[in-house]
């Protein structure tokens, strides 16, 4: 007897453990630090984020901040990734530490998925309202159906205060103002508790009498029918009819209380308005590009032709959100994240102003620890060992021109 | 202790031991069912049950009863045919809901901070009650599958409507109309669940105009009948005992 009892006890604990495990395994993805593990070619050849601005570095719970900027949808989108026909402008944060109070592409609100065109540049803005205190790495992010999340640059933002003071007031079309943070919560608890209690009551009704062993014996000896009494049947009937009646009644009172309801809204948003980019007057040809593994530097030989009417200089090379600047030409004034900014990371063999009509071949070196830190150098192990990036040229007046470069990359190991 | 000796010495002791077994078995059964049903349900129902902005009139109504009638059917086939205990479906649903609430409360809310009013589970109790009552009153597997299965599908939407209706009140948000549930999905950022994987309001039932939910519920009920049969036999097979000779 004791052995059996022990066995059942043991089994109970195994079952408990199983149940707890089953219940615990699933947690919605909270981490936002996939940025470095994402294949380098994905980050360099899909969405190019630039002109980014995080409006605040510190804010209190209930305060808002914006992340704004532009993204260029690379025309040479890799074959291995689905085209961004169905995409969603997301934000890379560890769970809802902010709420997304708004997000726009080209001025259009984008709560749903959108269709993006290759080769176009879009302006975007995400409005965030702080919800949970802490230091959070806030990334730009674009989900592409069939391509997964494409994570952009991230910046640390500190939220102060207490989450319990967070509120999310919303006014409905029926004129009521509610707090979406807690709205409907007591109703949810009430109905779940109510139905759970009904289920437990039924269980308790049958647990009053002996259950497993005597009933098994009765069933095996052909006396199964004696186990259900006429009273049991009456109770069951009342219970079943009662349950259906409660469903019908609660449904009709709900419809009286909420006469105006609409189905969930869904569907792809098309026709996102891209930025009208001025025609480029600078032609760039990549003669060759190599990555020196020991020096953590990428070297390009570029032939640049200025077809415009003012002299220009190369100020920045931007790839996968890492910005390599020639400090003599361009500097960052937006508080761009340090780890993604190489303020003097761009060396140009001859960066004197290139006069209109002139052509020059230059050696451009982009070197910074970011190549390693952000694992961009892993590009050479990717299935599509090509890089792409944005070059920014500046003229005397400070006008900027963006030129896309796209070329294969040859590693050198010495 | 040899196998030929009785483990108890008196009738009173036998009653006491039998009762102890009742509690131990119920307790064990509850958690075993919970574990299996919960994992099965998360894999098949998954996001439809996690988020309010997935609980639509078409696929949520169709999919959830179909994947949800599985364990109730299997547990019924053991508890009723072996013990004449008419609470198989209710016990399964009590287990599932307990597991889900633990998960939603501790993980979704406690660990990731999604508000509970966005991630509460769906209610299966009305269907489970009707399933158990029909089996008990009819003592017929076929009748339970047909009537009970259909009822399980039909009762799902109205059984959940009092809980989700308030979240279907429309709002105008920055020039767009959406429901409060849509707004929850937009506000409470899910990096791993982009909007486009939401399977809502999709399907070919458009010709029925506004009355999508009843049509989906009927369809779900019909499929639930088939799934009930299938899982009834799974339960029988799983619950069969094979005796081994004592060494
Ligand atoms: Cu990060």
TrEMBL record, chain A:
Q: Which residues cross the membrane?
A: 189-207, 235-253
Sample GO molecular function, one term: monooxygenase activity
Give the keywords, sorted. Answer: Membrane, Monooxygenase, Oxidoreductase, Signal, Transmembrane, Transmembrane helix
* Signal peptide (UniProt feature, chain positions): 1-32
Under which main EC class is this enzyme filed?
A: oxidoreductase
Indicate whether Metal-binding appears among the record's keywords: no
The record's Pfam families line, in alphabetical order, gives: Monooxygenase_B (PF04744)
Q: What is its EC number?
A: 1.14.18.3
Which InterPro entries does the record match to this protein? NH3_CH4_mOase_B, NH3_CH4_mOase_suB_C, NH3_CH4_mOase_suB_hlx_hairpin, NH3_CH4_mOase_suB_N
Q: What is this protein called?
A: Particulate methane monooxygenase, alpha subunit
What would be the name of the gene that encodes this protein? pmoB
From TrEMBL, chain B:
Q: Which UniProt keywords apply?
A: Membrane, Monooxygenase, Oxidoreductase, Transmembrane, Transmembrane helix
Q: Where are the transmembrane segments?
A: 21-39, 59-80, 87-106, 126-157, 212-234
Under Gene Ontology molecular function, one entry of this record is: monooxygenase activity
Q: Gene3D superfamilies under this entry?
A: Ammonia/particulate methane monooxygenase, subunit A
Cross-referenced InterPro entries, in alphabetical order? NH3/CH4_mOase_suA_sf (IPR037001), NH3_CH4_mOase_A (IPR003393)
Enzyme class, UniProt record, top EC level: oxidoreductase
> Pfam families this protein is in?
AMO
Q: What are the EC numbers?
A: 1.14.18.3
Entry annotated with the keyword Transmembrane helix? yes
Know the name of this protein? Particulate methane monooxygenase, beta subunit
Q: Which gene encodes it?
A: pmoA
Query: Would the keyword Oxidoreductase be found if you checked this record's keyword annotation?
Result: yes
């Amino acid at each position: 007897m004791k052995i059996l009892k022990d066995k059942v006890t043991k089994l109970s604990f195994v079952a408990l453990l199983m149940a707890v495990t089953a219940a615990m395994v699933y947690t919605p993805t909270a981490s936002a630090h996939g940025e470095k593990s994402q294949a380098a070619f994905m980050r360099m050849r899909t969405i190019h984020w630039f002109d980014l601005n995080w409006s605040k570095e510190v804010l209190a719970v209930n305060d808002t901040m914006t992340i704004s900027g532009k993204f260029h949808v690379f025309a040479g989108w890799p074959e291995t990734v689905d085209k961004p026909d169905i995409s969603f402008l997301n934000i890379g944060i560890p769970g809802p530490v902010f709420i997304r109070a708004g997000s726009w592409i080209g001025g259009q609100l984008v709560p749903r998925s959108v269709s993006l065109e290759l080769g176009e540049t879009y302006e975007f803005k995400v409005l965030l309202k702080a919800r949970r205190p802490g230091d959070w790495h806030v990334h730009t992010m674009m989900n592409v159906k069939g391509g997964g999340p494409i994570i952009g640059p991230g910046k640390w933002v500190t939220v102060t205060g207490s989450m319990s003071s967070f509120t999310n007031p919303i006014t409905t079309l029926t004129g009521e103002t509610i707090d979406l943070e807690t709205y409907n919560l007591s109703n949810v608890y009430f109905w779940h508790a109510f139905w759970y209690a009904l289920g437990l009551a039924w269980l308790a009704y049958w647990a009053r009498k002996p259950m497993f062993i005597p009933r098994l014996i009765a069933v095996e000896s052909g006396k199964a029918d004696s186990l259900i009494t006429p009273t049991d049947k009456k109770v069951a009937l009342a219970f079943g009819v009662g349950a259906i009646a409660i469903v019908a009644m609660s449904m009709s009172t709900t419809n009286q209380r909420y006469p105006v309801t609409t189905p969930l809204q869904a569907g792809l948003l098309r026709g996102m308005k891209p930025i009208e980019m001025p025609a480029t007057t600078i032609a760039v040809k990549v003669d060759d590009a190599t990555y020196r593994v020991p020096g953590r530097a990428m070297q390009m030989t570029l032939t640049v032709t200025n077809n415009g009417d003012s002299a220009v200089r190369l100020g920045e090379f931007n790839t996968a959100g890492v910005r390599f600047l020639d400090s003599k030409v361009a500097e960052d004034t937006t508080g761009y994240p340090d780890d993604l900014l190489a303020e003097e990371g761009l060396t140009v063999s001859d960066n004197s102003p290139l006069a209109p009509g002139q052509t020059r071949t230059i050696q451009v070196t982009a070197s910074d620890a970011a190549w390693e830190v952000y694992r961009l150098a892993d590009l050479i192990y990717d299935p599509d060992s090509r890089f792409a990036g944005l070059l920014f040229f500046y003229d005397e007046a400070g006008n900027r021109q963006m030129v896309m470069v796209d070329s294969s990359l040859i590693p050198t190991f010495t | 202790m040899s196998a030929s000796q009785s483990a108890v010495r008196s009738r009173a002791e036998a009653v006491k031991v039998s009762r102890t077994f009742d509690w131990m078995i119920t307790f064990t059964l509850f958690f075993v069912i919970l574990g299996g049903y919960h994992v099965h349900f998360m894999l098949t129902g998954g996001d439809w049950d996690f988020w309010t902005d997935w609980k639509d009139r078409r696929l949520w109504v169709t999919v959830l009863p179909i994947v949800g009638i599985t364990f109730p059917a299997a547990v019924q086939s053991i508890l009723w045919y072996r013990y004449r205990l008419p609470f198989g479906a209710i016990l399964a649903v009590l287990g599932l809901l307990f597991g889900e609430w633990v998960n939603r409360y501790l993980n979704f809310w406690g660990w990731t901070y999604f508000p509970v009013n966005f991630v509460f589970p769906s209610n299966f109790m009305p269907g489970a009650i009707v399933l158990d009552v029909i089996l008990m009153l009819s003592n017929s597997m076929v009748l339970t599958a047909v009537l009970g299965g259909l009822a399980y599908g039909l009762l799902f939407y109205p059984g959940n409507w009092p809980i989700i209706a308030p979240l279907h009140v429309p709002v105008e948000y920055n020039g767009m109309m959406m429901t409060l549930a849509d707004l929850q999905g937009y506000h409470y950022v899910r990096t791993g669940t982009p909007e486009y994987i939401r399977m809502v309001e999709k399907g070919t039932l458009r010709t029925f105009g506004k009355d999508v939910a009843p049509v989906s519920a009927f369809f779900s009920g019909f499929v639930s009948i088939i799934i009930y049969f299938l899982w009834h036999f799974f339960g029988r097979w799983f619950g069969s005992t094979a005796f081994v000779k004592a060494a």
